[in-house]
Amino acid sequence: MCGIVGYVGQRSARDVIYKGLERLEYRGYDSAGIAVVLAEDGVGKNFVEKVAGKLKNLQNKVGNLSESSGLGVGHTRWATHGEANEANCHPHISDGITIVHNGIIENYAELRKEIGENRFYSDTDSEIFAHLVADNRAKGMDLSEATRVAFQRLEGNSAFVVIDRDTPDTIIAIRKGASPLVVGVGKNEGLVASDVPALLAHTRDVYYLKENEFVILRHDGAKAFDLDGKEKRIQLEHIEWDADAIDKMGFPHFMLKEVHEQPQAIAETLRPWIVESKEKVRIHVDRMSSGSVVEAVQAAQNIHIVACGTAFYAAMYGQNLIERYVRVSARAELAHEFRYRKPHLRSNDVGIVVSQSGETADTIAAARMMRERGMKVFAITNVRGSSIARECDAVFLMNAGIEICVASTKAFSTMLAVFAALSVGLGVAKGHIDEEQEKEWVGAFLALPSLLEEQLKQGNMIQDIAKDYQNMKGYLYLGRGPYYPMAMEGALKLKELAYVHAEGFAAGELKHGPLALVEDKMLVVAVAPEGSGELHLKTLSNIAEVKSRRGTVLGIGQAKDSHFQDISDRYFSIPTVKLGDLNSILSLVPLQLLAYYISAAKGCEIDQPRNLAKSVTVE
Fold first, then answer.
1. Do domains 254-456 and 459-601 have the same CATH topology?
2. 407 — phi, psi (to 5°)?
3. CA pair distance 434, 413, nearest whole angstrom
4. Between vectors from CA 96 to CA 92 and to CA 98, what angle results, nearest 5°?
């Protein structure tokens, strides 16, 4: 969750690090700091500035740091051990050793007692590591050995970046578990960060640190080692992401920009799945992976789809489609529940794990647990070199590009697109979808981006609706079948951004409790395009129950559905797609924009909502 940036090279480390931290603000944080090392006459000196609150509070203080230093580290902290204040802010220093940390040291109490309370300036677990490394240096170890030996004493998932005033040309980066670090190699400079956007201004050639690995980084290159000190081969990846992805490009917020990027993102997601030949256009699954996905699914009795947060709602959608078109029992589960309930898993079961970042701690642990049981596990992720991508047998990339806003939009819609293509492709491979049906699906996939474009042109209508409903007492979202997870996602977006009470329900549950909340100041958002088929009339009956109790209804459906429009107080129509399962993706735009415009009207901090982080890399 924390943002980390380190730099070694010929530029001003202070300036590079500060700008890099700005690129990581979307991760969420409550304090920030920068430390640089300046070598003068062969003697290294530490300079550090830290503040509670936002980076802008640090801006006036960084001028106190030496501009001449070419070595430094910076950090944006999300508090775990110790409150958010200047003392607990990173970087932490001990006898010239400076560290920044992402993760949790589980045995910190034992180590803190061993080190001695009188040596500590903060309440953090992180400071322990600075003292351990400094003690090892005092024993005569070089910086890399001191770091490696200290790291082996820690329990839990952590990533550290370490610099030393007595070694002013070197950075050590080390990690274990779901705490990502990526090294960037530039011309006469090296960088390390917790995410790619911090590096893009300087290099596109990167290396993702693997589990239980450390890197020695200098201006002239990087070397990787395992925790036993054995050197490993570094293979750089070239990042193709456009630098414009980390610019608002005229939009007031990254969220609104990313909502409008969904048509292109969906097109990029679906493009690799569609195979053209002289005979026909078809959907192919195994072309998308290095392992035989079809073969594994053919043998599977159950498919376990595991995720957290927004990705879990995508998993619910995937469960619906897989059971319908692949005809295999599927179950969507929250990773943090799945891990600890001792699930009954068979070796011929299949796992699918979903994570935008590929670094979600509970989801990674669930993937490992399934693989330990002999299962084939596939990943849906947006980051090719992420931990989840490396853990799994096959990877289905979302190709959404960088998503800066903490509240997910295009990442969620591309997850849905992957599940649709995967389900249809497996259905074709298993013979449950015939050639004519496959042709219809291909046509629907190709039409989807333009339908999303058409829908985005109606954004002003949602803005007007948001003005009417921005001060409601609460918000209930209803949906059935594939629209139930959309209702859950719509409610989550409003909670995240506008800090109001909103809940998503399966519409059939209305009479089992939620109906007690209905009154004129409670907005009921009903997601019910006609594509829900037999469930559609049942959902309209639920809406009639709301209206009979003087509830206020915002309907999201299709233009031809006059009855739905008549019983709604306000109505937003989505374009019609021939295959109803894709209407779920089209229903997202009004849900996302409703949350955006209500939160904007309330003056909320949209791109960085309070208390939240983009990637949850600790349990």
1. yes
2. -75, 120
3. 26
4. 30
Query: Secondary structure of the chain: what % helix, strand, coil (to 5)?
Result: 40, 25, 35
The yes-or-no answer on residue 308 being catalytic is no
Tokens of 378: 């596939």
Q: Residue 365 and residue 382: Cα distance in Å, rounded?
A: 18
**DSSP label of 209:** P
Backbone angles phi and psi of 313, in degrees to 5: -65, -35
Catalytic residue among 50, 410, 493, 614: 614
Question: CA–CA separation, 214 vs 389, rounded Å?
Answer: 19
CATH code of 3-240, in short, is 3.60.20.10
How far, in Å, CA of 137 to CA of 143, rounded? Answer: 7
- What span, in angstroms and rounded, lies between the C-alpha atoms of 467 and 50? 40
Question: Per this entry, what is the length of the chain?
Answer: 619
- The CA-atom distances, in angstroms, between 101 and each of 91, 92, 557 are 8, 9, 48
The DSSP line for 143-203 is HHHHHHHHHTT--S-EEEEEEETTEEEEEEEEEESS---EEEEETTEEEEESSGGGTTTT-
The answer to whether the CB of 600 falls within 8 A of the CB of 254 is no
How many whole angstroms separate alpha carbon 500 and alpha carbon 475? 8
CA atoms of 90 and 35, how far apart (whole Å):
9
Please indicate, yes or no, whether the overall pTM of this predicted structure exceeds 0.90.
no
Give the CA count within 13 Å in the CB-facing half-sphere of 213.
22
Residue 516 is predicted with a pLDDT of 82
Provide the pLDDT for residue 2. Answer: 80
Instruction: Provide the token pair at 425.
Output: 């492709």
Distances (CA, A) of 577 to 416, 441, 487: 15, 10, 19
Task: Report the alpha-carbon distance of residue 557 to residue 40 in Å, rounded.
Answer: 69
CA–CA gap between residue 593 and residue 256 (Å, rounded): 8
- Amino acid (1-letter code) at residue 196: V
Domain ranges of the chain: 3-240, 254-456, 459-601
Angle 313-78-368 from CA coordinates, rounded to 5°: 50
Residue with tokens 């940036």: 5
Q: State the catalytic residue, choosing from 2, 89, 392, 405.
A: 2
The list of the chain residues with pLDDT below 50 reads none
The strand pairing partners of 72, in sequence order, are: 7, 36
Distance CA 528, CA 574 (A): 10
Spatial distance between the Cα atoms of 209 and 172, rounded to a whole number of angstroms: 12
- Give me the CATH code for the 459-601 domain, please: 3.40.50.10490
Confidence (pLDDT) at 84: 76
Consecutive H or E run containing 314: helix 310-321
The answer to whether residue 602 is catalytic is: no
Residue among 184, 216, 215 at smallest CA distance from 202: 184
- Range list of β-strands (E), 383-447: 394-397
Other CB atoms within a 10 A radius of the CB of residue 243 amount to 11
Class of domain 254-456: alpha beta
Q: Is 382 helix (H, G, I), strand (E, B) or coil?
A: coil
Spatial contact of 219 and 189, defined as CB atoms under 8 Å apart:
yes
State the Cα–Cα distance between residues 455 and 596, nearest whole angstrom.
Answer: 16
